[in-house]
Hints:
8 helices, elongated, zinc-finger, Zf-MYST, EC 2.3.1.48
Amino acid sequence: MASNDTxxxxxxxxxxxxxxxxxxxxxxxxxxxxxxxEDLVSKDTNRLYVCRWCFRYSCDTNSYARHTQVCHHRTTPxxxxxxxxxxxxxWEVDGECHKLYAQxxxxxxxxxxxxxxxFFDVVSFLYYLLVFTDPKDSSYHILGxxxxxxxxxxxxxxxxxxxFPPYQHKQLGKLLMGVSYKLSGWERDxxxxxxxxxxxxxxxxxxxxxxWEERIARYILRQESEAMGTKDSxxxxxxxxxxxxxxxxxxIITVQDIxxxxxxxxxxxxxxxxxxxxxxPTTPSKRRKSQxxxxxxxPDDSEMVxxxxxxxxxxxxxxxxxLQDPVRAEGFLGKLAPNSSKECTPSPNEKExxxxxxDE
Length: 360
């Protein structure tokens, strides 16, 4: 199983067998050791040329140039488009249908992921490509991807995620994370609540913690916004008496409730709430009050939290969190049934033998 790794900062490369990579017209430094076949990529390769459409690789500039002129994916990525909004789209690629493509993508990703372990056994994974289409000439650029097991016993909605180094620090990782949660949300009718594969890397933990915090903040702020909308008329009639102190609104809620509403695991909800610093400990009297309103089968004390919504609002303002989710519901092109039967028809170049670069 692939280790999860969300990277947003380059690390000091150690023992790299490939020093630099050319992706399309971009040249940048690699971060980690990869496992390209030694008979095709030597242990001391200064520059590796990688096709920006299909990730085929070559150490020879002429071979690389010839391939880019005839690449089967010049006009469109493989697979099916599942999301499209604001110039950004996400394409689902089945590792079984496009085995060579998935293998080459995984080998390229290893140059920037420390713990990625799946390279050739890709048939049990789905890959979701983040694509930007240039409105000037309709050309497309693959900015990153995440992978997901077709069948995860731990209900993981993501196995590995990477935004390619030239495109980092643009909030694109959050877009892919949001898509992964949307996809797992469609699976919740069979009882699945998703989360990334763990353990997370150091950078992965930081990235996901921020994503979870913003996700919870949006959920609570939307609740507050809807509640305020229904109470506006009654509040106009009831004015606070002079000298009365305005009380900060708060709500007793369980982390399980937040998890069910946001599609997050309980442990991830707890991590986010602690990071936000918006939780107050519950007193015995407040626990009893909550249990009385919830009935005899009230929530466990360990899952009960008190959240002051004013603190959440302050946190959201301090961190510039918009109420609108970066992943727009109208951008999805249809629900994906994880167990639906799909006709797997490899593209012409997927039928070629071998795992190496483009053969002339």
